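# nightly structure sweep
# worker-07 picked up a monomer target from the shared queue
# config: single-sequence mode, recycle default, output format = structure tokens
# input follows
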Amino acid sequence: MSGTPGVLIRLARQALANAREHPYLTALFGFWSFGYTIMVPQVLGGRYLPFLSEQMGGRPETLFVAFGLLMVNVVVFAFVVPFGLWMLVCWALGRDEEQDG
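# output follows
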């Protein structure tokens, strides 16, 4: 656990370097992330919350748990997935440039 801050700092430095080197790609993935922030609750929220609540017993407090699970989906699909793919694409583009040069 002691190495975690160092890893996060290196990840943040690499993300800043990728953003400087590939600004258009950064904007593209940023818009994707923003769109998913709105889309995931719209797509899942209509039937997802009542379905999960019903599966957990249908009591009113289960809606709170279902909403928490919906927010976990938002974090995963709107932030973790686009960020990870953006980092991989930037890494692949940088690697391609190294091999050409």
